[in-house]
């Protein structure tokens, strides 16, 4: 810490102790010149804290009335968070615990004080306080961003779902204004006069503490500002810039835009439509100019785009109604199917698709739902490389009104037809990550770029949310039925598949086998190399086991180092024997874990249906007993349950 920044308050009613502590501090910080204030009582200390800012405080436990402990509690109740060290002549563990619970940064006995110990404690307390302050600021920033993100989500939802565009925009401004804790939120439209002079009209306005009806103003009777000489900051809005203005920066003509006398600063967010500056949202604040993070700027620009889309959408309300009504109550596959059919009808085009990205950075996509000349299509995989969609998954909007050349490679979309026009927009999740795209195509030219992209952008937001919900639902379902470490089915999914396999075996009078597998000496790996190495072994073995199976077979992890293999529809016990031998051979190969090359082996117990049992419970029990026999008779082998014909196979 710079010398001039270290300011210390010592509260002690003993002058000799104060002088001694002061000397210890100066000895402990030989290169510094800390500023030290002395308070002889608790009241004097509170007065000092009220009129000065300190880096750290040292309170004597036996200060008087109030004593150091009570003074500490009073300071914390006042919301003062600076580090405080409690000092005492005779302390005990109980007092130390009480001090820390009351908010002390540390607790020291005067008898053991020295320049070294005191300076170390002060430096450590300052370091911890700085880290805590940074953490608290980071949390506050994240909390503010979360509040804004929720507000943007709520406002976007209102803008997307509310029928009355005027009421929905006012409600969106109210939600944003309250979330941002500003005094006003207004929307101005840029209307050029007949001679080209800029002219701004106030379309919508929300002011804190005013009833909703007083915030509602008609565009043609609202204040306007003609012959406005735009300053550089206003001009940056036309380029899509995020702009902040102090009222003192504006000349008289520009101040007419902001008649509220309590406002001292403004944040202007442009509304861009079709790459044209339509107007702006202005957030008026009575406080000084605030600092916006890039995430907050992005969120406000996102909601500005949503508001702009809502205004444009008002003129297309009739055309959009069919889409809204067709998708508003749908979820999942029903939503996607309804969306593409209604998009094709409303735009109109012959093809419409909702596609999902496969993996975060992959060029592979999957069609979740498609409408192709009156028929639904889905589950088609395609690669976007060297197609217009390559730009879309990079976050760009793409539009082609008419093309004379082949646009897409292959037959994924064309089906023998020549696609002359297309449009596509990306879909985003709640973290503004691209998770898919909406696209439409036609055999004839698309003439209305403005309207086509507007529709797609509007519903890309809803589609992105549904894609995210679908993905989260799939993850939750996967977590419920799969082992978190290996990704293999867990006991629940295994039992379900086993019951299905038994039912099928009963119907077809076929055989199935249960192979109960357990590591030999797995505890030794965990004990010698640690659980991380053990986890790597489990994952490596799981990968090897999966390669040994047919598509209809299942390998599951029960927990620990126990695995179950369900082998369905086998011809004889020889199939199970062959697979057991194959597994033992595959697992025997050395496994590289960290810097170690490990020799792994398994013991396997085998039970057959219907010979060894006809229910899942009995089969699992008998396979477990066979595993016990394999362990007992040498390990690194397999053993059939109660089998007299087949002897133990040593490997």
How would you portray this structure in words?
- This protein has 19 helices and 26 strands.
- Strands 12, 13, 14, 15, 16, 17 and 18 form a 7-stranded antiparallel beta sheet that branches.
- With 651 residues, the protein is of the alpha+beta class.
Question: What topology does this entry show?
Answer:
Layout: E1 7-11, H1 15-28, E2 35-39, H2 42-51, E3 56-60, H3 68-77, E4 84-88, H4 93-101, E5 106-109, H5 115-161, H6 165-180, E6 184-190, E7 199-207, H7 212-215, E8 224-226, H8 232-238, E9 243-246, H9 252-255, E10 265-273, E11 276-285, H10 294-315, H11 317-327, H12 332-346, E12 351-357, E13 364-372, E14 375-377, E15 380-383, H13 389-392, E16 398-400, E17 421-428, E18 434-442, H14 449-481, H15 491-508, E19 511-519, H16 522-529, H17 531-547, E20 554-559, E21 562-570, H18 573-588, E22 591-593, E23 596-598, E24 602-609, H19 616-632, E25 637-640, E26 649-650
Parallel strand pairs: 1-2, 1-3, 3-4, 4-5, 24-25
Antiparallel strand pairs: 6-7, 6-11, 7-8, 9-10, 10-11, 12-13, 12-18, 13-14, 13-15, 16-17, 17-18, 19-21, 19-24, 20-21, 22-23, 25-26
Which descriptors apply to this entry?
651 residues, alpha+beta, 7-stranded antiparallel beta sheet, 19 helices, 26 strands, disordered C terminus
Q: How large is the share of residues in beta strands? A: 15-25%
Overall pLDDT metric: 81
Number of strands: 26
Q: Which structural category do the helix and sheet elements fall into?
A: alpha+beta
- Estimate the helix proportion, in percent: 40-55%
Q: What is the 3D shape?
A: flat
Distance between the termini: 69 Å
Please mark out the parts with pLDDT under 50 across 5 or more consecutive residues, or reply none: 216-230, 644-651
**What is the alpha-carbon Rg in Å?**
36 Å
Q: Specify the biggest β-sheet.
A: 7 strands, antiparallel
How many helical elements?
Answer: 19
């Amino acid at each position: 810490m710079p010398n001039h920044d270290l300011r210390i308050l010592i509260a002690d009613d003993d002058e000799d102790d104060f002088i001694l502590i002061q000397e210890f501090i100066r000895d402990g910080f030989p290169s510094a010149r800390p500023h030290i204030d002395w308070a002889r009582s608790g009241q004097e200390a509170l007065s000092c804290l009220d009129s000065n800012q300190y880096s750290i405080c040292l309170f004597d436990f036996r200060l008087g009335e109030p004593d150091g402990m009570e003074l500490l509690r009073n300071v914390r109740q006042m919301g003062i968070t600076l580090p405080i060290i409690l000092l005492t002549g005779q302390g005990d563990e109980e007092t130390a615990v009480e001090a820390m619970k009351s908010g002390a940064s540390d607790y020291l006995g005067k008898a053991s004080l020295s320049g070294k110990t005191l300076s170390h404690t002060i430096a450590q307390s300052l370091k911890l306080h700085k880290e805590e302050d940074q953490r608290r600021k980071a949390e506050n920033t994240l909390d503010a961003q979360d509040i804004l993100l929720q507000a943007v989500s709520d406002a976007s939802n209102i803008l997307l779902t509310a029928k009355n565009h005027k009421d929905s925009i006012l409600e969106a401004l109210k939600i944003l204004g309250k979330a941002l804790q500003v005094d006003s939120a207004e929307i101005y439209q840029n209307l050029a006069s007949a001679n080209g002079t800029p002219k701004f009209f106030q379309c919508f306005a929300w002011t804190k503490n005013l009833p909703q009806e007083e915030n509602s103003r008609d565009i043609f009777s609202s204040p306007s500002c003609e012959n406005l000489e735009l300053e550089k900051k206003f001009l940056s809005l036309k380029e899509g810039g995020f702009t902040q203005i102090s009222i003192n920066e504006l000349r008289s003509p520009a101040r007419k835009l902001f008649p509220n006398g309590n406002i001292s600063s403004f944040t202007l967010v442009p509304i861009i439509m079709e790459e044209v500056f339509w107007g702006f949202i202005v957030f008026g604040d009575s406080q000084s100019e605030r600092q916006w993070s890039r995430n907050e700027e992005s969120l406000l620009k996102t909601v500005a785009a949503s508001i702009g889309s809502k205004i444009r959408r008002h003129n297309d309300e009739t055309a959009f109604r069919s889409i809204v009504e067709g998708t508003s109550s749908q979820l999942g596959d029903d939503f996607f199917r309804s969306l593409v059919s209604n998009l094709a009808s409303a735009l109109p085009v012959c093809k419409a698709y909702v596609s999902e990205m496969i993996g975060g950075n992959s060029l592979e996509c999957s069609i979740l739902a498609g409408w192709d000349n009156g028929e639904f299509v889905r589950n088609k995989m395609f690669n976007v490389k060297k197609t217009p969609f390559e730009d879309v998954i990079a976050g760009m909007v793409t539009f082609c009104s008419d093309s004379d050349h082949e646009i897409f490679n292959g037959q994924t979309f064309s089906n023998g037809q020549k696609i002359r026009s297309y449009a596509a927009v990306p879909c985003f999740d709640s973290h503004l990550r691209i998770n898919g795209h909406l696209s439409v195509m036609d055999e004839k030219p698309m003439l209305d770029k403005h309207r086509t992209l507007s529709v797609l952008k509007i519903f890309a937001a809803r589609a992105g949310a549904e894609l995210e919900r679908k993905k989260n639902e799939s993850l939750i379902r996967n977590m419920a039925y799969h082992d978190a470490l290996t990704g293999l089915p867990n006991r629940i999914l295994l039992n379900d598949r086993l019951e299905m396999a038994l039912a099928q075996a009963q119907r077809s009078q076929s055989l199935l086998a249960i192979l109960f597998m357990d590591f030999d000496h797995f505890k030794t790996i965990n004990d010698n190399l640690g659980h991380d190495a053990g986890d790597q072994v489990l994952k490596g073995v799981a990968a090897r086991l999966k390669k040994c199976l047919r598509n209809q077979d299942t390998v599951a992890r029960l927990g620990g180092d126990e695995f179950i293999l369900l082998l369905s529809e086998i011809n004889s016990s020889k199939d199970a024997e062959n697979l057991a031998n194959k597994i033992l051979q595959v697992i025997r190969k050395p496994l590289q874990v960290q810097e170690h090359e490990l020799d792994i082996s398994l013991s396997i117990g085998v039970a057959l249906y219907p010979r060894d049992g006809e229910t899942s419970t009995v089969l699992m029990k008998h396979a477990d007993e066979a595993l016990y026999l394999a362990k007992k008779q040498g390990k690194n082998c397999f053993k059939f349950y109660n089998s007299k014909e087949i002897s133990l196979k040593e490997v």
